[in-house]
Design brief:
The structure is a single chain. The chain has 7 helices and 10 strands. With 267 residues, the chain is mainly α. Among the domains are: 62 residues, no CATH class; 58 residues; 64 residues, Arc Repressor Mutant, subunit A (Orthogonal Bundle). It has a 3-stranded antiparallel beta sheet, with no helix packed on it. Strand 1 and strand 2 form a beta hairpin.
Length: 267
């Protein structure tokens, strides 16, 4: 009984041993061999903003953040700086661009490509921050500034009034910054729901009802109605009431596309 033919390299033809997965001459991997993937060290991630691969650094390791901390401390007798430090001391950032490291994704092993989702129907983009900490910090700064101004008026201390005024302005700006982030988050939620409604319309023939949207997207009736009403511009999305009194939302572009596909389909 003859043995099996020797394995050879697909590139240079060098004979390979039974347990050899890589050619000793040219270094190519043999057919059927599993290329070992070197896992990145623990804590190594990829920054979604600049693409940096590595480990994050402490929030206050960046000079700009330290400058903000010192500035707040000077104008708030250290109280604001302490609050700022407590709020950010455990945060990490990208050492290259300063992006929040909690949003970074896991780094892939060398040579491995990210997996492509077969259907992103249920995948939602990551929502932006709602600015809760900024609003809390801003409100705390305004309250402390009001206390300083009141004490300055009672004690006839001009410095306390000036510091309180500056701190109040900074607190108001910080609170407005957080409020703006909240509005952006709400808009991102609405945009995500509208995207799902458009996807649903393409699968339902370009006509939807509030009940269908609520049931398929797991929404309440008022929320589904609010989303569809916000999309109704009379052009790309328009509403109509049938003779039975049913409110329909039509997507003319989807209807037009289906008519084209229907007439062009072979009989």
């Amino acid at each position: 009984m003859q043995g099996s033919p020797p394995r050879r390299c697909d590139v240079c033809g060098e004979a390979l041993g039974a347990l050899q997965n890589r050619c000793p001459t040219c270094g190519a991997w043999a057919s059927g061999a599993v290329t070992p993937l070197v896992e990145p060290p623990s804590g190594v991630k990829r920054c979604p903003r600049c693409g940096y691969h590595g480990q994050g650094v402490s929030y206050f390791s960046r000079p700009g953040h330290v400058g903000i901390l010192v500035g707040i401390s000077l104008f708030t007798y250290g109280i604001g700086g302490l609050v700022y430090w407590l709020a950010r001391r455990r945060h990490g950032v990208c050492p290259n661009c300063g992006f929040g490291w909690e949003h970074a994704g896991r780094a892939l092993p060398p040579g491995q490509q990210p997996a492509q989702a077969s259907d992103d129907w249920e995948k939602d983009p990551k929502l932006p921050s709602g600015g809760v900490k900024r609003r809390f910090l801003g409100a705390a700064m305004v309250l402390f500034a009001s206390f300083l101004i009141m004490m300055g008026i009672i004690e006839f201390e001009a410095a306390a009034i000036v510091v309180g005024s500056v701190m109040g302005a900074g607190g108001s700006g910080t609170f407005f910054w957080g409020w703006k982030a909240l509005q952006e988050r709400r808009q991102a939620v609405i945009t995500g729901l509208q995207r799902k409604v458009l996807r649903l319309a393409t699968t339902r023939g370009g006509v939807l009802t509030v009940t269908e949207v609520a049931a398929d997207l797991n929404l309440s009736i008022p929320v589904a109605e609010k989303v569809l009403t916000g999309m109704d511009d009379g052009f790309r999305v328009r509403s109509d009431i049938t003779d039975e009194g049913i409110l329909l939302y039509e997507f003319p572009e989807v209807l037009h596309r289906r008519r084209i596909e229907g007439t062009s389909a072979p009989s």
